[in-house]
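Review this:
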Amino acid sequence: MSDLPRLPPRDRTGHKGEYGRALLVGGSRGMTGAIAMAGMAALRGGAGLVTLAVPRTVQDIVATYHPAVMTLGLADDGDRFKSAAADELLRHSQSATALALGPGLGRSADLTELVERLYREISPPMIIDADGLNALAERPNALAQPGGPRILTPHPAEFARLFGGGLKASDVATHEQDRIHFAGELARRDQTGRTVVVLKGHRSVIADPKRHSINETGNPGMATGGTGDVLTGLVTALVCQKLSVWDAARLGVYLHGKAGDLAAENFGQISLTATDLIDYLPVAFQSL
């Protein structure tokens, strides 16, 4: 990827507040690992403070994954968020530098309502993945009027659901020119022009309404559960450090793939896991 963006050097007198407050929203009973890995990736990605907003029923579990991550327990139905959690999330979003929405979120009518409301009303940049994308696919009109800058990170099946119109995952899985075309079309549904689409896969496509970029890092070993959650947390951290959504998406996808490549050199592709990517993010950063 040419002209790769860079993070600015850190000030010797800098403190954690200067490197952003990341608020990651997700998790549900049986899917606590997704939001935990996103949080750990946000830490490795350089965010100053990381808070995981999760259903109260799983808060104690999520809090055990990493001692440097803070947790916020919100209203739930015993398994996943209730729509009533939106009010408190909107309040906490006011002090966040960037948010992520989706890892391990689950599916329900309440969650669809929650995701649509947050997408429309939260003004800081937001990265949406996994079940956050699936909820938006049920409320596609929300894509036209986001409350602020957005990064959507679908794999081909999620992309097809978001795009609608009979599009199939196979239509955006392999042919690069088709992938570029459809990613740009989805980004252009945002009438405010502030949405970046990351269409994941071999040579992931990053597109906004006016331009696109192709990523060249990554390998088939990364086709395993949790790697998308790692990307979500990493990109959130980069936005926290004052990169634009366009630059954060490009750099995040590159570093995510680079960490996967470095891990595969040591472990092989077959044995690669999502947490390996988190462990190799420091080396990926150093490789720049």
Summary: The chain is about 40% helix and 15% strand.
